[in-house]
Amino acid sequence: MTIVVSKPRYPTVVLYVQADEVEQLGADLFDLGATGVEQRDATTMDRSAHESAVELVAHFPDVELARAAQRLLPEGVGAQLSFVIGDDWKHRWREFFRPTRVGARFVIRPPWEEAETEPGDHVITIDPGLAFGTGTHETTRLVIAEIERLADAGAATRTVLDVGCGSGILSIAAGLLGAERLVAIDIDPIAARVAVENGIVNGATIEASTTPVQAVEGTFDLVLANIRSPILIPMAAALLERTGQHLVLSGLLLEERVEVREAFDPRFEFVHESTEGQWLALTYRRGAIPAS
Questions:
Q1: Residues 136 and 256 in one domain
Q2: Are 274 and 138 in the same domain?
């Protein structure tokens, strides 16, 4: 008797866009529920099927969500539903994860690579697994640089809440700069588990869970939220309640600046803005609690 073992099938939506459309359509795909977006062009391991276009491959948790996204995308991008068969794709990214310098004195490295360091450097060893956060994305770099800036300025960072923690990289960076309590939350239980594991590797104790931000108890000196704006903006009131001193926001495209500031400026004192490429980070300080 022959036993046939079926391989898992992962739904994707594939579309072809021009280079100047990648940032916006990539953000739109996340807003439509994608858990990850792969960009393929002439420089990547998997090349685009069309030499003159960038291929975006958006991964979705289920086929119904993928079909809904396909319907809602602009007709001109030719969105097609496809499937990835098997699990080999989960680990191919490791071939391209190399030690990276972030901020003035952080070096991010995977466990399988050694890193060149300088005196005073903080080395973060990260294995993100299926969670977001290797230190290579602009938003991650922006937040780490801002944690560093605040610490150097003498701001209170003893307690930290990391909202949408992914691999836990931001919590670890704060811990290496002296934070004593690190609380991390993410809607993905895999991310919460990975954050704890990465914390252990780096000597940091991270209290990670899938607790909604509205249910987190207490306030924190520093709150970090590296999350896309459609999810971030409705969190404004909850983030205010949990921010003791400073709030750092990222995951934001430059064109979303006005919309995000309209949501947060009435609640916080604006402090600082930093940008990298098409991405933005905003830092706020908690002032007097607005009258209800």
A1: yes
A2: yes
Say if residue 38 is in the same domain as residue 180.
Answer: no
Whether 96 maps to a domain, the answer reads: no
Tally the domains of the chain.
2
Beginning with the edge strand found earlier in the chain, give each strand of the sheet holding 100-102 in spatial order.
100-102, 106-109, 122-125
pLDDT in tens, 67-113: 999 998 888 788 889 887 665 555 554 555 667 888 888 988 887 77
Is the same domain home to 206 and 64?
Answer: no
Structural domain contains residue 118: no
What residues contact residue 207 under an 8 Å CB cut-off, 6+ apart?
181, 182, 183, 184
Residue-wise DSSP of 92-147: GGGGG---EEETTTEEEE-TTS-----TT-EEEE---TTSS--S-SHHHHHHHHHH
CB of 101 within 8 A of CB of 116?
no
Phi then psi for residue 138, to 5 deg, are -55, -40
Please say if the pLDDT value at position 8 is more than 90: no
Look up the domain containing 177 and give its range: 131-285
Amino acid symbol at 232: L
Each residue of 105-161: pLDDT tens digit?
898 888 777 778 788 889 898 875 544 555 568 888 999 999 999 999 999 999 999
pTM of the model: 0.70
